[in-house]
Amino acid sequence: MNRTTAEFLEYLTHQRKYQEATCKSYQADIDCFYAYLLTTNTLDTQVNLRTIRDFLTTELARGISKQSLKRRLSALRHYYEFLLGQGYVTTNPFMLIGAPKVGSQLPQVLFVEQIEWIIKANRKRTDELAIRDDALLELLYTSGLRVSEVTSLTMQDVDFR
What we know:
It contains 7 helices and no strands.
């Protein structure tokens, strides 16, 4: 690890109060970029848009996911912003490049038979929470709401009319 990376991680830890795991991820991302710079004989002060694009292309060819690449770009953008603020570089070329689009995953859905089995199993319960759970299951099943949406409902969200 070079001096500027150590200073940056120190800054993240003590001034920005980043968690240790976040700092380790940032360090790994920065180390990966420096390893790439070594293969191209490029100094960190010589990095430009072309260098970044070539780095991204290389990472994608290595099989890095777009989500990981997005995180790596974010770490490097913050790192170069720090270098700029400390006077180590004159520009932050990472500000010129957008993050790759990351496709969202489709939600997992249950088959009708699975939903019916869950509702029947709940109706066999005799404890006091069974009625509440039955109402929640019916709400999930009939409305198409996500679990996170249902769990965040409050009494004010319910129209009793």
